[in-house]
Amino acid sequence: NNDTDHAAASLLLEGSHSSLPARTIVVVDGLQTVVSGTATVPIPGLSIAGLATGALSWMVLEGDVGPDPDEFVDLLASPSGSGGLLANANSPADDPMNRSITTTAPAQTGVVGLDLDRFDLAGLLSPGDTALSITFGADLDKYWPVALIVAVDAYAPDLGASTLDWSLDVDADSNSVVSPGDTLAFTLTLDNAGTADALVSMT
Prior knowledge:
203 residues; seven-stranded antiparallel sheet; two-stranded antiparallel ribbon; elongated
């Protein structure tokens, strides 16, 4: 019997807060069927810089417990060619679809018909990469990737707290207000609260 009945629902919420690091988030949804072969999902639109760090999460239906060298998820970053097999403490590289939820603390194992996992991408990306290719492999297992969420740490300067002050340095006509012929002194204080160096051009 090649039929597999399954029912599931999910709600994806994306939010921001000043206490959280800036990230570029790409969501790819749309049911894929992976059985006795591979399926590849492209993830374009990234701008990877700085330490080249981030995370990938997925929702996948109907994985089965048990290691299999032909079950894997391989990440390839371009144009660098960096990448590797995805794995974490509860989802090994040869059994990534093993009915686990690793987005909670503690992680949950033995759940029914669902994988909801997060993977650290440190060491799998390189600065300058702009796209990822995620290849899902299955041997005798059969599963359905529903959604992929890639969150790449954004490295950018933030000069929002910088200030520009001025004072009347030479009051040529002694009238205590700025007027033609006076000399002004400007003080620019640069405050970079971002995560990358800033290049400032003064003209």
